From TrEMBL:
InterPro entries in the cross-refs: BUG, Bug_dom1
Organism: Rhizopus delemar
Pfam families tied to this protein: TctC
Source organism, top-level taxon: Eukaryota
Gene3D superfamilies cross-referenced by the UniProt entry: Bordetella uptake gene, domain 1, Periplasmic binding protein-like II
SUPFAM superfamilies the UniProt entry points to: Periplasmic binding protein-like II
Protein name as catalogued: Uncharacterized protein
Length: 157
């Protein structure tokens, strides 16, 4: 994502690898790094506390403290989008009836007001798709990100 932003914006960004969002946010707040690309859930507590400022969102849907924040497209970086999503996986060979049971349980949980509120508080929204739709999303994302890696000048080694 950083390589794409760097290329589209015509600026030189240096990638600094971190072992998670917490140390990266700590370094951002301490002035060790100048900017950070992270998930809404990771940034939300510091945004809410007024300690971090959102420069741009990588997707069109904003919610909670992210509502009204500019998107990359609105900031002049059209053609880059990324959604922060979470998925539930089971080992290969899990019986179909068990997968169906888990999918139904997740779909039901995604309707719970408490679950919806918790997901929304992190700047996300619940989906609760079925396994076939999730599989299709994974395939679409694989193609999209492979293209983005090439666009950014990387290789798929």
């Amino acid at each position: 994502m950083g390589a794409l932003v760097s290329k589209k914006a015509g600026v030189n960004l240096v990638h600094v690898p971190y072992r998670g969002a917490a140390p990266a946010i700590t370094d951002l707040m301490g002035g060790t790094v100048d900017m950070l690309i992270t998930s809404p859930a990771s940034a939300e507590p510091m945004v809410t506390a007024g300690k971090l400022r959102i420069l741009a969102l990588s997707h069109e849907n904003s919610i909670g403290v992210f509502k009204g924040a500019p998107t990359l497209k609105q900031s002049g970086l059209d053609g880059i989008t990324a959604d922060d999503w979470y998925g539930l996986f089971a080992p290969a060979g899990t019986p179909p009836e068990r997968v169906a049971y888990l999918a139904q349980a997740v779909a039901q949980a995604m309707k719970s007001p408490n679950v919806i509120a918790k997901i929304n508080s992190g700047g996300s929204w619940p989906v609760g798709s079925q396994p076939d739709a999730f599989r299709a999303r994974l395939q679409e994302d694989t193609v999209y990100w492979a293209d983005m890696v090439k666009t950014a000048g990387g290789s798929l080694d």
